[in-house]
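Dear Dr. V.,

Thank you for agreeing to look over these. As mentioned in my earlier message, I'm a first-year student in the group and I'm still getting used to reading structure tokens, so any feedback on how I've presented them would be very welcome. I ran two proteins. I've put each sequence directly above its structure. The first is here:
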Amino acid sequence: MEETNSVLQLCYHITKDQFADYGRRMGLRQFEAKKKRTTISGIAEILLAVALIVMRLTTSEQSNVSSLFYILGVVLIVLGAYNLWFYRASLPKLIEKSAVENYEKSQYLQNEIKIEFTNGELVETTVSREAYQWSEILRVEETPMLYAVIATNERTVLIPKEEIGDDRYLVEEFLKTVCNKFSKEYYTYR
């Protein structure tokens, strides 16, 4: 049986900025593979459009089809530019906006959060009490602003560094030890 003595107890709030930063980082990480594919697709669309327009300009035949080459070329350039722009400019803002909206709707995020680390589990108390076995967590992620214990596919426990002061070093060391002990990934965002 696991030892359940308390190793560390924390009490904190999560700010809107901390939650938005984490939401942006998570969203961008999930879309990283799609970003590469969409960039390649965008470049291919633009190159195809240029080829169509050049092909039309270099042929002397005039017909109703020639107008179609120009229209198709412009449409492909617009689609290609959109694909190149979306993941770089639009998506980060959309993800951050969504995170802020979720923060404002969440009773959990509006309340004080109490965390207790034991050798066997992480106990979180907010509007309810939840316990997560260290052996069953999925991974731990660290951003410049916080630690995130990914407890399940549906549940993440956020621990903001600024709110816990000097205890952050104890938390970091403990989380790395737990990840090592239970063969869990410890991922650091920079």
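The second protein is here, in the same arrangement:
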Amino acid sequence: MHIFFVDLKISIDMLSPIINNLINNNQKVIMYNINLIQDYNRENNMLLRFLSKNPNFKFISDYDISLRSRFFKFFFSLFRLYFNKGYYSGYRLWSFLWKETFYLSKNKFKYFIKKNNVKSLTIVEDLPAKKKLLLNRIKNELNIPLIMAHGGINTIPSTTKFSEITPNYYLAANNQGKELISSLKSFKLFGSPRYSKKWINSIEQIYLLEEKKK
């Protein structure tokens, strides 16, 4: 079992081709949402719908299994209408909750990882710093590989402080702006799976692009 942590829709877009390759090779994968206020409708999200056709894939949100997250999700939902009245107030609340980890339980994560016999944890580099530090502590305590994929909203040089966060593997799309980390043993030049011919063919099927062209 492998866990891919996501918190933005672009994270799903970045990680889906890697996940698709794994599940098609009989590897079990959980995509785990750790954004308290981001709901992913599995029926309307075509990537999730596509991946979910494979029995090796499962999508869950932290508030599906954690009472702590469920409580805070309900609590902040009571104020959502108020904050949505103003763009700035609503954005400040969303940004605050996106960056924080007070609603995430390290012990709950560790229990879930052990229970499911998880072999690796994967994140994208634009995950907020506090969440990366939390998962880095977990990987150290459980001695489990942490894989970091470059991408998401971070398209320029690496912003991760590798003195604080030490992924076992850093999957780089290219060498641009990576001079300070390219010598690390964890650095792997991986390319961009989203632009592989195999995934582009899958995208055409997922979004029915051929029908739209006619």
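From my reading of the second output: DSSP finds nine helices and seven strands in the chain. The mean pLDDT is 80. Does that match how you would interpret it?

Kind regards,
E.
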